């Protein structure tokens, strides 16, 4: 997971979260559902935000 977060840059937090969730489901067969929250401190967007975050839940597709 470290390679995903520290590797190739992503433009959107959603893309990082999706990649992490997909990787966890692919690597760990016993995991049926995963929730991933990604937080970016001091985002480069207009306004005064300490951080922004996205949280997603993904389930294994059965069949």
Description of the molecule:
The protein starts with a helix and ends with a strand. The radius of gyration is 13 Å and the shape is elongated. It has helices at residues 2-6, 13-27, and strands at 33-41, 51-59. It has one domain (2-59): GTP Cyclohydrolase I, domain 2, CATH 3.30.1130. Strands 1-2 form a two-stranded antiparallel ribbon. It contains two helices and two strands. The chain is of the alpha+beta class and 63 residues long. 32% of the residues lie in helices and 29% in strands. This is Dihydroneopterin aldolase. Its EC number is 4.1.2.25. Belongs to the DHNA family.
**% residues in beta strands:** 25-35%
User: In percent, how helical is the residue content?
Assistant: 25-40%
Tertiary shape = elongated
Q: Please list the strands of the largest sheet in the order they lie side by side.
A: 1-2
Top-tier CATH class: Alpha Beta
CATH homology-level superfamily? GTP cyclohydrolase I, C-terminal domain/NADPH-dependent 7-cyano-7-deazaguanine reductase, N-terminal domain
Order of H and E elements: HHEE
What is the rounded Rg?
13 Å
Q: How many distinct beta strands?
A: 2
Oligomer category: single chain
Estimate nothing, just give the exact number of structural domains. Answer: 1
Mean pLDDT: 91
Please give the count of helices: 2
Specify the biggest β-sheet: 2 strands, antiparallel
- Give me the CATH fold name: GTP Cyclohydrolase I, domain 2
Low-pLDDT residue intervals, each spanning 5 or more residues: none
What would CATH call the architecture? 2-Layer Sandwich
